[in-house]
Amino acid sequence: MFRLPFLVALALVTAFGLGIGSTVKMLDASAGFGAIKLGPWVAFPEAQMPDADPYAKSHRARAGKLLLGSAEGLTFHAGVDQDGKPLSSYCTYEMRGQTPLARFWTLYTANAADEVLDPGPELPSAFNAWNVLRRSDGTFSVVISSSPQPGNWLAVKRGRPYRLVLSLLDTPTAGSNGVLEIDMPTLRKVSCS
Amino acid sequence: MIRMALFAILTGIIGAAVLHIVIILALPTFTGLDAYTRLLNEDAENRFVLFDAKKDTAGFNNGDPYLRVAACMFSVDDKPVHLTAGSGVPLWSFTVYDSANDEVFSMNDRSAAGGELDAIIASPQQLASIRKADPDVISQSVLIEMPRSEGYIVLRALAPTPSFEEDVENFLSDADCESYE
């Protein structure tokens, strides 16, 4: 007697549960298609454009961020290290090399919602193209760790997940499709404690 | 019974796929969380609102620790908008977005004449009459055509060290986006 209503309910629950669940999961996981992936670094140069894909449009409508325009720059995120393992605040990483051609760049840590993280008062929480210490060949190395390090130390709080945000300002990278030419800094795990 | 249940689940999965597509396509129009809708809560009509390192009531902040951000809402329904700002910061850039949060135009100080920002945002008809009234306007202002009448401007300036904070704040608070006469 209750067979038909039960079956209808089962179909509806599956449809709405899976339909809404998969959409939310998809939009939380990625900012759409059209990503540039360079080692651990990911950027979405077309996310703010009118011809962005529907997932990118939905993602930006939910996130509501003021995105960088194509002449302004390009933001790369890294949530994993060079080997593809998720970044852990219990480990020390070394970011090494050079950024692609840009007039300026900034580096900081953010949480999953893209809010800037504050490791604590008086601790180095961000670097930029001017204040980073470089080697004589122009390359640099930034050590990301929860304990103090010599050189460029980017502090993170122990036990708090983070990802790295590298913004290139006024860069030809944002406008060009010649992504193969881009050299991003490497991000290697040094040790864990 | 089990076969019927499997059939119901299969129907549900097909329904889920349809629902997924419908939500993805429709979402941009009704989230209420997109930047344009939230900027309506700011008092930013034809004036730049400067953001802070902390989130304000509408949920906007500078984001990047070295960038200072301001935004202005405008409509070219009645009149074009004249966007002006000075210079004196290491780097500035702006992007014009329409009400669907699509980028219409963006540029930075390297492409501005004399490093100063001067742009006119207008509908296609208004642009035609501006060009007609003053053919020389193009030599001093960047002309930007809006496909929709409503939109917003995001203006960013760079403060690489704390000593630039004052210049950057002056730059952003002196920026104008008033109606063009």
Low-confidence stretches of chain A: none
The secondary-structure element order of chain A is HEEHEEEEEEEHE
Mean pLDDT of chain B: 91
Largest interface: A-B, 56 and 59 residues
Terminal CA distance of chain B: 75 Å
State the helicity of chain B in percent bands.
25-40%
What keyword list fits this structure?
heterodimer; A: 193 residues; alpha+beta; six-stranded antiparallel β-sheet; four-stranded mixed β-sheet; 3 helices; 10 strands; 27% strand; B: 181 residues; five-stranded antiparallel β-sheet; 30% helix; extended
3D architecture notes:
The complex is a heterodimer of chains A (about 190) and B (about 180). With about 190 residues, chain A is an alpha+beta fold. Chain A has helices at about 5-30, 55-65, 170-175; strands at about 35-40, 40-45, 75-80, 90-95, 105-110, 125-130, 140-145, 150-155, 165-170, 185-190. In chain A, the strands form 2 sheets. In chain A, strands 1-2-3-9-5-6 form a 6-stranded antiparallel beta sheet. Chain A has a 4-stranded mixed beta sheet with strand order 8-7-4-10, with no helix packed on it. Chain A is globular and about 80 Å long. The mean pLDDT of chain A is about 90. Chain B is α+β, with helices and mostly antiparallel strands and about 180 residues long. Chain B starts with a helix and ends with a strand. The chains are: A alpha+beta (about 190), B alpha+beta (about 180). Chains A and B meet through α1, α2, β5 and β9 of A and α1, α2, β2, β4 and β5 of B.
